[in-house]
Amino acid sequence: MLFNSIDFVIFYIVVTILYFVVPHKLKWIILLAASCYFYMAFVPVYILILGFTILIDYFAGIYIENEHNPRRRKLLLAASLVANIGILFIFKYFNFLNLNVNILLNKFNYHNPIPYLTILLPIGLSFHTFQAMSYTIEVYRGNQKAERHFGIYSLYVMFYPQLVAGPIERPQNVLPQLRIRHKFSYDLMQSGLKMMLWGFFKKLVIADRLSIFVNSVYNNPDMHNGTTIAIASFFFAIQIYCDFSGYTDIAIGCARTMGFDLMRNFNRPYFASNIQDFWRRWHISLSTWFRDYVYIPLGGSKVSGKRRYLNLFIVFLLSGVWHGANYTYIIWGMLHGLYSVIYILIKPYLRKTPENKIAAALMRMGNIALTISLVTFAWIFFRAASLHDAFTLIRNLRSFGARPFIGDGVSNFAQSVLAIVLLFILEYKIEYYPEKFNFFSSPNILLRWGSLTFTILWIIVFGVFNGGQFIYFQF
Amino acid sequence: MKNKLVVRFLVRLTVFSLVLIVVDRLVGFTLKKIYFNQRVGQFSQTTYAIDSARQDIMIFGSSRAVRHYSPTILSEISGLSCYDSGRDGLMIPYSTAIEEISLSRHIPKLIILDISPRELGIDKTKYEKLSILLPYCEEHQQFIKYIKEVSRYEPEKLFSKTYPYNSSAFILANNSLFSKSVEKDDNGYLPLRGAMTRPEVKDYIKRMTVRSKRIRQNTELAEAKAVNYFKQFLDNAAKNKIKTIVIISPTILNNAFYLDNQTLERDLIEKIAGEYPNVTFLDFSTDPRFNYHPEKFADVFHLNKQGSEEFSTIIAQQIKANL
Asked: Which of A333, B145, B210, B251 has the fewest CB atoms nearer than 10 Å to its CB?
């Protein structure tokens, strides 16, 4: 079920009312049933895959906790991880690997007898698999007690607001919350609804508006000049941010109205002044997952320089692979790995922030612009349908400066530019003046209701209501 | 305490919802006034096509209909009045909707449908764009079945009086504030200025050839629903015994549909049109008078003023000879 659909609005209202109406001991049943229904609205049969991983990790958690022999504990953890990654591999990477084997064997005139699998990728598979894996790892590490209640554990993996596109939670944060008696809270309800509203604004007014122009360019990479491609790529950078963070805001807001506190996933990434800063602000739940479960176990930054660079590179490469079975994602990940390694290498030689305020502000602006440019360049690979398309787009970038194509009409382009300007003004305010101009929570009811009404009407007037699913659902 | 909070929340939510409904109606009412008072631009053309057009010849289609047919030339040569109901970016479902509503009010002597093979291809945007019919749904309930193509809940969304004008604000503001700078149409016709150059055509051929290698690997497939809309369009005309000309207007390349992987759709148009005795099918896509004549094209898809006037003259002579 898509958040940006009438079906979801009805679903959300019904589930939230039921959640507060039923006695505490039945709340988990309501949430679990709702989550199953939510997931089954996509492809019903895939609930079985989810059920399979839930079963494995539920028992793995208990066995790991009960087992005192370190070797066996490690084996149990490995078995659970292999099962999770195995499912991910079959559904997400098998055909990609098979295709590559095919190409390789064809070069030597051999035939690959292994057929391709004709299966759809279960929606959000990488998200809930990673969340499930974090549970068994944390139990293994002794940071989390194994959950004995099968229903509660299932809900940890399946909690509908964050089931298909995160935030990828840790058990220490979510599992205790699933047992707490959540009473109706006026403050949480209104703060959650406002967060959802902001999420819908980002998705409908900004992301889906920009997608119209982006799609028209990226679907015909051969047909556009450098200026058009540069604009479309910048638009995509904003689109994917608003699409994904919009989803996250709706997810966090939705959970908050029921009393749950999910982790933050974005922190205005396009105000990052370098690539490391960007990754501290972008998809935080995934980057901290990789930090905690890959980078640190590999030695993190406590190893020699070369090894540290390699570790960083591996993490970003894996991040690329996590996104999808396509060389475009792999190159996107590698580019970010490369950016990060280069940044660490040149960091000691970078000029310190000047004391003069204007010079410091200019330097920061320059750094932000450079970071956005690097990130946007990498997004070309992420968005392109194939490597061929990506390289065509990059080749065509050479004609930068030519008169751009502005799409189906000035109106859509103008609305796209307005949406971006609005986003930057709002994010600038939150970044630098977090305490000022908070109209949504102003004590003045006129200002508060006025701003809320204005936002809703803005969505109705400028939103795109048939924009389709969220980009990150495919992962 | 808990109940008090719930009641407080519900009361506030109800009052806020009422405020929102009132403001929505006020904004919607204002936008409606502005929309239906447009004197220039495509909104006013659509309103005229839906509510007022009573000409002898009615032209339907997408941007190629708007840009390729001069009603003045068609009228001068054929002696029949003419209106161009085409609209940029819209395709066969829209043409069928406008034809249906037009025929319920007036029976023209001749219908021209300008169609491109891509209109029968798989492309869901042709349904999404039907949302431009939303402002007319209050008056014309026949459009409800068309807007359901946009989404299942579209009729319910019309509870909002602002929603029908979604994404129109910029155009409304521009057409109202700068109406003098908006190009006036000639009975729906809006010719394009400028001309392509030979290097641009060469570059286009190069790009199309590269693209063609990629897209020709895909299976060519017509979309059943779009085909049905095309049939429905022809059925409506046949039911009212109206002579109809289905036209594929000129293209800059003579193998455009081959390169675009649309030969199947092109052949389907000819085949279906052939099933109706009142329908004449004319394909100008390989006409040497236009192919590789960049001076007659404003861009790779559209004739310019010179090209469209020459084309309109050819069509007018055909009409004169056959009517």
From this structure: B145
